[in-house]
Amino acid sequence: MIQTRTRQETLKRDGLKQENLKVIARLLQERLHLELPQRLPVRIQCALHHGQLLVLAEHRPGVSAQVGEIFDALTQAIAALIPDLAEDLKLYLRVAGHERPYAFEALRSTSGEPAAETTPDEDTALESPNEGPLADGSDESEDEEKAIALAVSAFPPNPFDELALDPQDLEQIAVNPKQKRARKPAPPWLLPLSATIATALVAGGSAFYALSRPCAIGRCELIDKAEQLSQVSAAELQAVEYKHQLLDIHEKLDKATTMLGRIPSWSGASDRAATLIRSNCVQLDGITEVVAALDRGLATAERAKNPPHSVEIWQEVAAGWDEAIAQLEAVSPDSPVYPFAREKLQEYRQNRTAIDRRIDNERQAQAQLQSAQSAGQVIKARQGVAQTTESWERIIASWDEAIAQLERIPDGTTAVRQARQLTAAYQAEATRARDRLYEEQLAQNAYDRAVLEVDRAEGFQQQNQWTLAVEAWTNANTYLEQIPLGTYPYAKAAKLGKTVKPALADAREILAQAIARQDADAALKKTCSGSVNVCAYSVSDRVLRVQLQPDYLSEVRKTATTADRTGNPKVRADLTEHVQTLQNALETISDNTQIPLELYDPYGALLGRHTPRSTN
Fold first, then answer.
1. What are the two backbone dihedrals, phi and then psi, of residue 493, each rounded to the nearest 5 degrees?
2. Phi-psi sector, 49: left (phi>0), alpha (psi -120 to 50), beta
3. Residue 346: Cβ-neighbour burial (10 angstroms; 0-12, 13-18, 19+)
C-alpha cells in the first residue's frame, strides 16, 4: 500500500514522462483485468504525442469485446492513477497483430466533452476487426482519420503480437463489437478538482487496488506457473530445429512474462518474478533475433529463386544474407537459442559464399560477353575492307576466337542466353567469311592460270605455232571470265583482259590465214599437177599467183589446131570444157581461202583476176 501510494504520488508530482509510460500501462492493465466482469484479457500500451496521452487496449483475434465497458474501465483507472491529468486523452481498441484500431474515443480534461465529432449517444465506431467498416457507421471525419493515423504510428504491431492466455481466460462472453452504448457524462476526474478531493481519490483507490493485486498475500501460484513455463521453454530451446518451434516457445515465454508482470512490486515474490522476467527477456530477445534472421533468410532465398539473375539482383541477395547473418551473430552466447543460431549461421555463411561465386561468375560472364561483342564489331569493320585471301583467313580466325570466347561463358548466368544468340550470329558470319575466302581463292587461282596461259600464247606466237597460240589465248580468256565481280583479282583480271581479247582475235586471224594458205597450197598443187604440168603457183596472205606452163599451153593449142583441121567439133568442145574446168577450180580455191587470184601466161602477162566471193 505504501509503495503504491508513493508511485502514484510521483506520477502526480512529475506529470507524464516517457519513462513512466510502461509503469502506467502495466498498472492500467492489471486494474483492467480485475474490473472487467468477463475477465477479458487485454494488453495496454501508452504513448505521448505533443502532451496528449494515448492509451491502446488490445485483445486477441476472434474475441468480441464490450467497447463501452473497456473505455469506462480505462477512464476510471486513469482517474485513480493520475488524478491531476491535464493533457488530452485518446483511447483506442485494437485486435492484437492488426495495425489499425477499430474503436476510438477522445476526451479532454478541461471540458469533459469528446474531442472527436460523434453523436452524444454513440461511440466513435471505426472498423470491425472481423467485418471491415461498420455498416451503420457514417464516414470518418478528418479528426478521426488523424487520430487513427496517430495510433498507427505510435503503436506499430509486434511480429509476435499474440496475447498469451491462461486456459480459463479463453471462456469469454461474445458481444457484438458494433453494439453501441449511451455516452456517459464525463467522469468527475476530468473536471477541475480541488487538491483535497484528488488526494482522497488517490488514497482510496490505492488501498483497494493494492489488496486486489495477485500474489499480494499468501502463496503465489502465479509465479510457480510462470517458472514452469520458463523451464519448459528453456529445455525446448536446446532441441529446436524449426521456426514454428521457436514461435511456440516464444508464445510460452511471453505468456510466462505476462503472468510475472501481474505480480506487484510489494509482493514477497516480486524479486523472484523480476529475476525470471529478466531471464525470459534474454530468451525472448534471442528468439526474436533468430526468427527475424530466419524470416530474412527465407525472403532472401525466395529472391534468389529462378536464376540466372543480374549482378544487381545477386547483390541484393547478398545483402539479405548479410542482414540475416548479422542478426544471428547478435544472439548472445548466454541465450539457450545460441546453438541453433550458430548452426544456422554456418548455413547462411555458406549461402553467402555461394552468392559471391554467383556474383563473380555473372561479372565474368558479362565481361566476356562485352569483349566478344566488341570483337565482333571490329571484325565486321575489317570485313568491309578485306581484299586478299590472307585478310579473309585472318577474319575467319578472329570469328572462331570470338565464338570460342562466347562458348566459355559459364552456364547459370544472364549472359548465356544472349551469348547463344550472338554465337549463332557469329557462326553465320564465319560461314560467309569462309565462302568469301573460297571465292577469293578460286578467283586468285583463275587469275594465276590466266597469266600462265598468256605466257604460253606469247611463246607459241614467237614459234609461229598459231594453233597452239590460239588455244593458249583462249584458255587465258576463259580463266579471266571466271573471276567474279567484287573479288580482289577482278580489277587485275579486267586490265589483263584488255590485252588477252585482242591478242586472241589477232591469233585467230593469223591462224585462219595460215590455214587458208595451207589449204590453197594443197588445192593448187592438186590442180596444177597432171601428165603435163599445168601451172606453177605461189601463195601469200594477199594473193594466189598462178602462171600457166608453156608445155600445157602448147598442148592446148595443138589440140585446138587438130580439131579445127579435122573439123571434129567434139574435140573442140572437150578442150573448151577442160579450160573452163581449170578456171572454175582456180576460182573455187580463191573463194574457199578468201585469197584473191591472179592468172598469168607463161611469159608473165596477166590473163585475169578473181576476187573471192563471201562464204557467208
1. -65, -40
2. beta
3. exposed
Is there a contact between 36 and 73 (Cβ–Cβ < 8 Å)? yes
Mean pLDDT estimate for the chain: 79
pLDDT in tens, 500-536: 999 999 999 888 888 888 889 899 988 898 888 889 9
In the DSSP assignment, the letter for residue 114 is B
Please tell me the distance from the alpha carbon of residue 371 to that of residue 531, in angstroms, as a whole number. Answer: 97
Q: What nine digits make up the cell of 424?
A: 549463332
| Terminal-residue alpha carbon distance, the chain | 149
Q: Can you read off the three cell numbers belonging to residue 326?
A: 548479422
Residue 574 neighbours by CB distance under 10 Å: 13
Spatial distance between the Cα atoms of 318 and 322, rounded to a whole number of angstroms? 6
Q: Which neighbouring-strand residues pair with 539?
A: 544
What was the pLDDT predicted at 110? 39
Q: How far apart are CA 164 and CA 327, in angstroms?
A: 26
Predicted confidence band of residue 454 (pLDDT cuts 50, 70, 90): very high
> Contact 35/77 with Cβ under 8 angstroms?
yes
Is the four-CA dihedral 155, 161, 166, 172 of positive or negative sign? positive
Which amino acid is present at 84?
D
| Burial of 235 (C-beta count, 10 Å sphere; 0-12/13-18/19+) | exposed
Maximum C-alpha span of the chain: 200
Report pLDDT digits (tens) over 358-367.
999 999 999 9
Alpha-carbon gap, residue 17 to 54, rounded angstroms: 13
Cell 509476435 -> residue: 160
Q: CA-CA distance, 320 to 305, in Å (whole number)?
A: 14
**Do the Cβ atoms of 335 and 283 come closer than 8 Å?**
yes
Rounded Cα gap, residues 154 and 46, in angstroms: 9
Please report which confidence band the pLDDT of residue 616 belongs to, taking 50, 70 and 90 as the band edges.
Answer: low
Question: Burial, 573: exposed, middle or buried (Cβ in 10 Å; 0-12, 13-18, 19+)?
Answer: exposed
Instruction: Kindly tell me the burial class for residue 50, based on how many C-beta atoms sit within 10 Å of its own C-beta (0-12, 13-18, 19 or more).
Output: exposed
Q: Write out the three cell numbers for 24.
A: 502506467
Beta bridge partners of 48: 53
Strand ranges across the sheet with 535-539: 535-539, 544-548, 597-600, 606-610
- List alpha helices for 213-242, DSSP H: 221-237
Helix axes 415-462, 389-407, angle to 10 degrees: 160
Write down the residue that cell numbers 501510494 correspond to. 5
